[in-house]
Write a structure and sequence with these properties.
This protein has 5 helices and no strands. With 138 residues, it is an all-alpha fold. It folds into 2 domains: 1-72, no CATH class; 73-128.
Length: 138
Amino acid sequence: MEKLSAYRILCGIAGALFAAAGLACFAGFFRAQAPGGEAGGPIPLGIGGVYFLAFTGCALVGWGGALIAGARDVVTGRLLAPVTALALTGLALYRMVGWFMGDYHALAGDLLRYEAALFLALALAFVWLRPAPERRIS
């Protein structure tokens, strides 16, 4: 498979998954705001947590949309690769720190470690498959 095709597939799949996760977070916000509703899951969320759940959902939908656009446009995709790799590395870093802390480990177990490995592998893929700059012939 050609490197550019692999990068476009990576952007498209990651973008679709991020957008779907964002919509799920956003739906969780509205489910929690319904009369008698609450945000389910392993981590208890109060009013502030539900607010940040909606914020996270909006950000993921935007990031997913940007990655889908990057799958279609090589120039946009080239610009998105390092930013996406940096964000994924940040996600992995706080999951590693959370795994070392007792409270999060008690809630999520080894899941945080597996998520960190997945995010670092995705970050590496975005850097490795990043499209080459276009050569201009003068």
